[in-house]
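Box 4.2: Ligand-aware structure prediction
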Amino acid sequence: MLVMKFGGTSVAEASRFKDVFNIVKHRSTVSGKVPLIVLSAMSGITNELIDCAKCAQASDHSLAAARLTDIKDRHYEVVEDLIPLSGRDQLLSALEIDFNRLSILLQGITYLGELSKRSLDAISSCGEILSTKIFSAYAISQKAPAVYVDARTIMLTNEDYGKAIPNLEELSARSQSEIAALMKEGKWIITQGFIGATANGVTTTLGRGGSDYSASLIGAAINADEIQIWTDVDGMMTADPRLVPEAIPVANVTFQEAAELAYFGAKVLHPLTIKPAIEKNIPVRILNTLNPDSAGTLLVEKTDNTEKICAIACKKGQTAIFINSARMLMASGFLAQVFNIFARYETSIDLITTSEVSVSLTIDNLDKLPQIEEELKQLGEVTVLNDLAIIALVGRNFREESGTAHRIFKALADLNIIMISFGASNINVSLVLTNQDADRAIKLLHSEFFSMAAVRS
Ligand code: ASP
């Protein structure tokens, strides 16, 4: 069984739906494996639905209604271009029900002038429902053995709207009962990424960009042979190609390397995607719908790569907090007090460096920063620096082999490195620079580590 997840740009318009269908047909024929297709909403639609909901919250009903009409027109255009007349009416009446429901929801929000997370999930989940209904109708019109499965019947979650946590036992049990038998009969399953439902059947979402995560969870639940994440680039790249045009795709990475890259800004994969795949040791392949013959990037448990660095990722918009305390000299429990403050305000820390009397750390969620700062001031002198970037170099054996730090410092000799975290992990060196210096630093590091033959092919 093959899980094939297609992102929003892969279903941006009618011709792209056709490309997706052809890719699925070709891959499943060549591999002899039955596909389970997970789709995102058409590109931009989730944002547009959220905008609609916000207009309604601001009680601007006419703007919300106009935006909803735009969304509807975009989907109906695809239906007209894609679906043969014989199957069109049935699909259009199904979509009409969804749009009427959306319209009623928006009216309710307009009257109340209030948008709860639960209501927002009810609205933002619709993009995936629409795209999968259209794709299913198209696949059936092409005589594929397609079955539409509403993800809310299998992806049971808690009630944490907006970032709901899936119940893996239920997912596994329901996938076995709802899906496995159909797939054994050779049926293609078409379902939504991103969405789920509570035990009471209330719609939830797994967080923005969560379709990759859905695909990986479902892949693990059905013990898929491979999870394919189809996107619009040729896989994970040695650096962001918009910034470093000579960046090239990385042929294979370990799950751990991929997790570090995803977490530190390689947008090609949602960071949570990797965990379910690791647990079941299912290979994940990142592929490009615009260039389906390219090999992409394969994520596996172990690789035989030997190059020092596999890729460079970057996360901008970080904030560093420097805490300096004379009381820390020879004292125990100081770090525990610092971490406790962040834990109480549910703010996760990314990078930490310490010296005898100081702690420096970075965060990217500033919601609780004023309260955190206030409490930290009880412990020592606090300085906050905004507009920083974390650059992560991901590779191998940093703790065991010499020379990496030297090459990093040499490459960045005339740039100001604000923090460096080396040794926390054997596969990651992270640096903090200003947002402004970050692009230049990435270019310099890329040419230091990749301009020679030290490139994976
Ligand atoms: N459509 C959702 C989003 O834009 C989920 C996804 O595409 O992964 O966040």
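In the box above, the bound molecule is aspartic acid. The pocket of aspartic acid is lined by residues 7-8, 40-41, 46, 127, 193-194, 208-211 (CB under 6 Å).
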